[in-house]
Amino acid sequence: MNEKVTKTTTEWREQLDDLTYRVTREAATERPFSHPGFAEGPGEFTCTCCGAPLFTKEEKFESGCGWPSFVAPAEGAGIDEHMDTSHGMVRTEVTCSQCDAHLGHVFPDGPPDRGGMRYCINGVALDFTPEDDKKE
Predict the structure, then answer these.
(1) Pick the catalytic residue: 47, 49, 96, 120?
(2) Dist CA 129 CA 56 (whole Å)
(3) What does the pLDDT read at residue 42?
(4) What domains does the chain contain, in order, with CATH numbers?
(5) What is the separation of C-alpha 86 from the centre of its chain, rounded to a whole number of angstroms?
(6) d(CA 125, CA 106)
(7) 124: which of 26, 60, 66, 90 is 20 to 30 A away, CA to CA?
(8) What count of other Cβ atoms lies within 10 Å of the Cβ of residue 22?
(9) How does pLDDT run across 60-90, given as a tens digit for each residue?
(10) Whole-angstrom distance between the N-terminal and C-terminal Cα of the chain?
(11) DSSP secondary structure code for residue 32 in this structure
(12) Within 10 Å of residue 58's Cβ, how many Cβ atoms?
């Protein structure tokens, strides 16, 4: 695993736009169906804050919830899970283990034939690199 990414609040604010900062650094949530989506085809989803690999296109599915959804992290992905009791709920928060960015939450209501989990991730927390771009 790579060395932990640590930055000051000022450094994060300079790197990220306002919405991405609020989502990844303050655990806000983008509005459902507000992210434009990602290109089709194979590729890798990485943390928008630090570039750590998180998910692949193969794990993505259309859940209808308004946020990118995945059945599981990519093999070897740097994802941590924490209990989240905010907003009067008990949920499992998902963060990037490399930079502690808030990514979203995981729920046990995903496709049963693919393990039953739904990693519900804020689109602004992800960057997508098509597989063809990774080869160059």
Answers:
(1) 120
(2) 9
(3) 86
(4) 9-32+42-135 (2.170.150.20)
(5) 19
(6) 15
(7) 90
(8) 17
(9) 999 999 999 999 999 989 899 999 998 899 9
(10) 23
(11) T
(12) 12
Is 120 in the active site? yes
Tokens, residue 96? 């990037």
> Which residues partner with 11 through β-bridges?
none
Q: Which of 57, 32, 29 is nearest to 125 (CA)?
A: 29
- For residues 104 and 127, what is the distance between their CA atoms, to the nearest angstrom? 14
109: its two tokens: 């209501």
Indicate whether 134 pLDDT > 80.
Answer: no
Which residue type occupies 51?
G
Would you report the helix, strand and coil content of the chain in percent, each value rounded to 5?
Answer: 25, 30, 45
- What pLDDT score does 37 carry? 72
pLDDT in tens, 19-63: 999 999 999 999 999 987 776 778 899 999 999 999 999 999 999
